[in-house]
Amino acid sequence: MARTRRGHNPMTTGMPLIMGILNVTPDSFSDGGLYNNFDDAVDHAVQLVEAGATVIDVGGESTRPGAERLAVDKEQARVLPVIRELIARDVPVSIDTMNAATAAAALDLGAVLVNDVSGGLADKGMARLIAESGIEYVAMHWRGHSAKMDSAAVYTDVVRDVRNELKHRVAELIVAGVRPDRIILDPGLGFAKTAQHNWQLLGRLRELETLGHRILIGASRKKFLGELLPEGAPTADRDPATATISALAAEAGVWGVRVHDVAGTLAALQVWESLNEGRAPAPRALGSGK
């Protein structure tokens, strides 16, 4: 397994960073219940790193549509033991949480990034924590908790509206003391978005990049990809579509992709990278005079 020095920030890479998903939950839409067991969770994280993940995103609260909130103490009981063990093994860890207390506990253990689907709106203490710690921070576009987010999927122009709302969120984070260069933005595919909204956002990613911040894309196994498959197909069958989106997002210049299937995504990104190398003009032969 590739090793990263403890305390080293692995957030720089040539192709888009691959964030491997580790849901330590019983109710996540794709893999809920698969990694509730401590040993299973740790083993899966190690496998994701060996497959090519740069960082493991550990989450203990499901944010699928309709999900109810989880008590903070239960969230921490799920994620902190796993995070402690992964960091002891020199595995770079991101904490996927809306709760500042959980984020702080994960950072104390050595997590290198906070991934907050609420962009700091669910817990007003989050911005202060990020400002004080100076840690990398993913702020997702968010219009409310999972239990009611589908009713908020109303836009005039989804790309313009999401861009404007993210711009406003960034401004508030900066006022709270968060360093602009630490902010990574996620358009929140599937969060208060219809399938059409998701495709529009993916098709116009460069408009979001004009905000001047790195972009993370989390399309992995989401419902709108399932609509491309036969009815009843398992969520894992959405991995090829996810890998394709990862390559197209790389072409659009995104910073990272958050995925379940790391190996398939890495292969797609390697194809994209090799294609880019093939586009480069051939070196001129010495002495050709041309």
Provide the fold topology.
Blueprint: E1 17-23, H1 38-51, E2 55-59, H2 72-88, E3 93-96, H3 100-109, E4 113-116, H4 125-133, E5 136-140, H5 158-175, E6 183-186, H6 195-203, H7 205-209, E7 214-217, H8 223-226, H9 239-251, E8 256-259, H10 262-279
Which descriptors would you attach to this protein?
disordered N terminus; alpha/beta; 290 residues; 8-stranded parallel barrel; single chain; 13% strand; 40% helix
Short description:
The chain is 40% helix and 13% strand. The chain has 290 residues and is of the alpha/beta class.
Structural class: alpha/beta
Low-pLDDT stretches are: 1-10
Helical stretch tally:
10
Overall 3D form: globular
Largest sheet: 8 strands, parallel, barrel
User: Element order, helices and strands?
Assistant: EHEHEHEHEHEHHEHHEH
Helix percent reads 40-55%
Task: Tell me what the structure shows.
The structure is a single chain. With 290 residues, the chain is α/β, with parallel strands linked by helices. It has ten helices and eight strands. An eight-stranded parallel beta barrel has the order 1-2-3-4-5-6-7-8, surrounded by six helices. The longest helix has 18 residues. The protein is globular, with a radius of gyration of 19 Å. The relative contact order is 0.12. The N terminus is likely disordered.
